[in-house]
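User: Structure tokens for both sequences below?

Assistant:
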Amino acid sequence: MKSIIRILAFGGFMAAALGTAAQNTNSGYFLDGYTYRYQMNPAFGGDKNFVSMPALGNLNVAVRGNLHLSSVIYSLNGKTVLFTNPGIGSADALGKFHDKNRIGSNIKVNVLSGGFKAFGGFNAVSINARANVNAIVPKAFFELAKEGISNRTYDIRDLRANATGYAEIAFNHSRDIKQVPGLRVGAAVKFLLGMANLDAYFNEADLTLGTDSWTARTNADIYANFGKLQYEHKVNKQGREYVSGVNMDGDGSVGPNGFGMAFDLGASYKWNKDFTFSLAVLDLGWISFSDTKYASTDGTQTINTDAYTFNADGDASNSFSSEWKRLRDNFGDLYQLNDKGIIGSRTVGLGATLNVGVDYALPMYRKLHFGLLSSTRFQGRYTWTEARLSANIAPVKCFSADVNVAAGTYGASMGWILNFHHTGFNLFLGMDHVLGKLAKQGVPMSSNASVNFGMNFPF
């Protein structure tokens, strides 16, 4: 069990190594003068040419999920303890977990960007470092950790972790369609260099712990693509070598080991002076990774204690100590994956995002407008959706601001953004999710948090 958990946890570690920033803030989708609106809908053009501050043009530290730090750690008698501490009641601790506990981040570090008006529209070139990170942990996993072995069934199926890291070079163009007044369209083409991928599937871990018999089944697969990643190995008492973890000390260079393409498509339509409707699909694409390192339990493995008989005679071949040792070793075999070596290339989808928006300008004061944005991230079991209602104001040409509320897969939140955009200098600061309560170390207790910051030079 420990070896599989180590490998699953490596997904989060790899994400941290790839970067610590996330995608554009949805709070800025309707905001006048926000430089990176075109990355949320490629039909949105810029008012001015611009060049970003290297690495600081659009920096966003963010995380989403329903697995919160406040569910895992507690303050007990002045000390910080885990939920497994005996001083924390089982009902109180386990009541904070969901049937499916999810956490993830879509990471994007803007290395360098620039935009300019030409070719009949607005154009932008961006170089980004990106990573998509997700994990799903079923409640039964925490129940087993809290309760230990008791006479009941623990169904720990669908424990999963995924992390994909890549570099992106994007070219964006948008223009007005003169034949249809009010209509503007845009598209972006992206060339991708795959750096790392990890997919861990704990498909089945059904543990039935009864008074007279124990039954266990498990099925797990691990796919990994990373230059220096190697599976660690140990040998069990039967002499069989198994995967015990991962390390980064193996042979091989760190660099691209996959290539792919992706596209963004978008449109906006201004209907009279009051309403603007918009639609965009982002990251329609894939990466093909080479040299996939594969580990597996080789299908479903099952152990049933009914197959064991215990003899009180200590010298018998089926003595209590001998049978218990065999039982223990066989149960251990359930969680020992086999290193299947390199199985060749593997194609990974990026996970597309759909943005649908409507913007309404207040007729009596058009510097104030309201926006409703629906965002859905399509990524298999990691799919999430959010609806965000915002009030946006631009009282003067060089300043705009927004406050908003949102609700979706991961609950309700409140956000805001301030944007200073004078000729020659642009500075913005905002949050899609206010931080809320922080731990002593400054870490948010909720897994929904976001801070967005950027500096650019419009001209």
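Moving on to the next sequence.
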Amino acid sequence: MSVITITKDNFKSEVLQSEKPVLLDFWAEWCPPCRMQSPIVDEIAEERPDIKVGKVNTDEQPELSAAFEVENIPTLIVFKEGKPANVLVGMRTKEQLLDLFL
């Protein structure tokens, strides 16, 4: 499954109403750690069809960033049953991210 671009317009249907757990990556184009995190997030999307993976561009979606108090990026939030279950700030390994779904 590929990564979904999450916006304020599709957030409810793609994240809050998702039957699968969701990994959201809050990032920005100008952020070097975000660019390092991105391939890891992409791998998870391709390898784990049981997890929905989305990316939120913080420059384009300031409302979503504010709603989840994202002050530093990358910030990764796991949603389960439509609610934030885990928040990680900063670059993480694939294993650290997958451990959130155990």
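User: Anything stand out in the second?

Assistant: The chain has a mean pLDDT of 96.
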